[in-house]
Amino acid sequence: MTGLKTVVSVESAPAMHWVGDGFPVRQMFSPGTGNGALDPFLMLDYAAPMKFAPTKGRRGVGPHPHRGFETVTVVYQGEVEHRDSTGAGGTIGPGDVQWMTAASGILHEEFHSSDFSKTGGNMEMMQLWVNLPAKHKSAPPGYQTLLAGDIPNVALADSAGHVRVIAGNFKDYHGQDHHGPARTFTPVDLWDVRLVAGATATLQLPEGHTAALAILRGEVGVGAEHTAREGQLAIMSRTGAAIALTAGTEASILLMSGKPLGEAIAAHGPFVMNTVGEVKQAMRDFQDGKFGVIS
Q1: By three-state DSSP, how is residue 7 classified?
Q2: Nearest to 243 by CA among 283, 286, 211, 217
Q3: Cis peptide before 40 (omega within 30 of 0)
Q4: Residue 158: helix, strand or coil by DSSP?
Q5: Sheet harboring 188-195: ordered strands across?
Q6: For FRET with 7, which of 26, 78, 114, 283 sits at 20 to 30 Å CA-CA?
Q7: Partners of residue 201 on adjacent β-strands
Q8: How many Cβ atoms sit within 10 Å of the Cβ of residue 60?
Q9: Which strands make up the sheet holding 60-66, listed edge to edge?
């Protein structure tokens, strides 16, 4: 039987910074974190709960480009409106997810929803960047709305908590498979894990895949020797096929696992390609208006 994955490192996120005027985030990792240990994941921004006063204006981020990867936005509290140059758009609220494939190039914007702006309230969300294989970086851009009601919410054994399966497959303690609704280009598991205080849980993951735990709230023992706390990222080994967790407090965790691409990365701002030349071409294409317009 294959054993447990072990902790490679526990990384602490830097201080909060603003993305636009609507998203106060801590960047829990970036393309250089872990020296490739997070492949195929590129970046994770987490906006912890913050209360916003009502406004008649718009808070968020205006039109900006992306190429070469996917963005995954999960809303925990509040509402976010999205529009992009494919003509897609919509509003996502608590528990909903947007999975946007930038691929060959897209323009998009993200704002607090009009209704949320009028009433104010708590906003909490995260955005994950997932790299695309070189052969798919030139694919047409696309967009998936994953509503909370379509995301499996699976109870853990011994009332330890539950797992929302956004992408990939989760096998419950009865041996039943639960598949997330997201369509992915390569095997990726993305799970929203909630544990009750004092609970223990062992989560099965593929041998050889990247795995990491972003602790959004609480304190969690990972394996026998490490503890990760709010605002920290536990990077796991690729050997082993399970992660053992013990919740010191009630905890909220984003679990990421994926098949490593093993390809060169050239990243500059909103462009993630395989070579510097491809990044420069992306910049020229954006300047030439080839990413379309938001209508």
Answers
A1: strand
A2: 211
A3: yes
A4: helix
A5: 7-12, 232-236, 210-217, 251-258, 188-195, 161-167, 153-155
A6: 26
A7: 245
A8: 18
A9: 60-66, 106-112, 80-84, 89-92
Q: Residue 89: is its pLDDT beyond 50?
A: yes
Given a contact cutoff of 8 angstroms between Cβ atoms, the answer to whether 125 and 23 are in contact is yes
The whole-angstrom separation of Cα 287 and Cα 97 is 30
The set of long-range contacts for 84-90, using a CB threshold of 8 Å and a minimum separation of 24, is 84/108, 84/109, 84/141, 84/143, 84/294, 85/141, 85/291, 85/292, 85/293, 85/294, 86/141, 86/142, 86/143, 86/292, 87/295, 88/142, 88/143, 90/145
Two structure tokens written together for 234: 């536990």
Entry field: residues in the chain: 295
Q: Which two tokens stand for residue 14?
A: 């830097």
Residues 175 and 209: their CA atoms lie apart, in Å, by: 21
Report angle CA 253, 255, 258 to the nearest 5 degrees. Answer: 170
The per-residue pLDDT for 287 is 96
Encoded amino acid at 194, one letter: R
| Cβ within 8 Å of residue 4, ≥6 positions away | 202, 223, 240, 242, 243, 244
> Which tokens is 160 given?
């330890």
**Mapping DSSP to helix (H, G, I), strand (E, B) and coil, where does residue 136 land?**
helix
Instruction: Read off the pLDDT band of 1 (50, 70, 90).
Output: very low
Phi, psi dihedrals of residue 204, rounded to the nearest 5°: -85, 135
pLDDT in tens, 192-201: 999 999 999 9
Give the span between the Cα atoms of 157 and 164, in whole angstroms.
Answer: 14
Q: What are phi and psi of 135, to 5 degrees?
A: -70, -15
